Amino acid sequence: MVEQLTRDSVLQGSTLFALLCERHPGRYQSTQVRTLQRHIARWRALHGPEQEVIFEQRHTPGESAFFGILSFYYKASLLRDVKEVEEMNELPKPIKIEEHAAIQDTFLARYVEGVARQQNIAFPGHTSDIAILVVFFEASSRNRPHTHEHDQTLLVLSGRTMVATETEKYILSAGEVITIPANIWHWHGATHDAPTCQVSIMIPGTSNFEADERNWATNYL
Predict the structure, then answer these.
(1) Which of 138, 139, 121 is nearest to 130 (CA)?
(2) Distance between CA 196 and CA 138 in Å, rounded?
């Protein structure tokens, strides 16, 4: 399959899938074509012909190593026999959550009161289309009110995390989890007495960080 992709740079995943089904009758289901197309797209991003359009690169500390682990996983799945592509049983190496690996994102910093640093654990296109972000809030730090297109789940790893909507407010301790429904106006961060570390798990979508403040300024007690 890799030889065919190398020989024909515009070969479509659906064409390859049809060839595989013809070669191995009854072995594959029609629902697997999307999986093969995703693998092909990732292979082309890593090993395909050079693109004429050049995008500005931003190198985030710790991210390149993480991407290397993930690229190994997808390269392995394509360079092996087709059977192993569908029956892959290897896992990428574990990632350690460490504050020194977190960075202060310049874009999101505009929407944070205080100091918050983040460590990307998983991001769309490299995993199963889910974003997992670890955020370290210093004491008395929180983000500005915002909304997300999809549900957001927050898991507290250390300290105490304050999560608030316009009408409700919760203080979560380490080990506690809360899910914020889609399109709900909310904010979250550390309490005033100690820093906190929280994990955000969410299907990527549109987020509105320009939401109106409402009672945000007076509800941080």
Answers:
(1) 121
(2) 7
Nearest to 188 by CA among 216, 168, 164: 164
What sign results for the dihedral spanned by CA atoms 69, 75, 79, 85?
positive
Please, what is the angle between helix 63-79 and helix 33-47, to 10°?
A: 120
Range name among 54-68, 103-117, 202-216 with the lowest pLDDT average: 54-68
- Which residues, 6+ apart, have CB-to-CB distance to 16 below 8 Å? 1, 4, 5, 36, 40
Please check whether residue 111 is in contact with residue 209, taking contact to mean a CB–CB distance below 8 angstroms: yes
Name the band, by pLDDT with cuts 50, 70 and 90, for residue 1: low
pLDDT of 122 reads 77
Q: Tokens for 165?
A: 């909507």
Query: What would the pLDDT profile of 83-93 be if each residue is shown by its tens digit?
Result: 444 444 566 67
pLDDT greater than 60 at residue 81? no
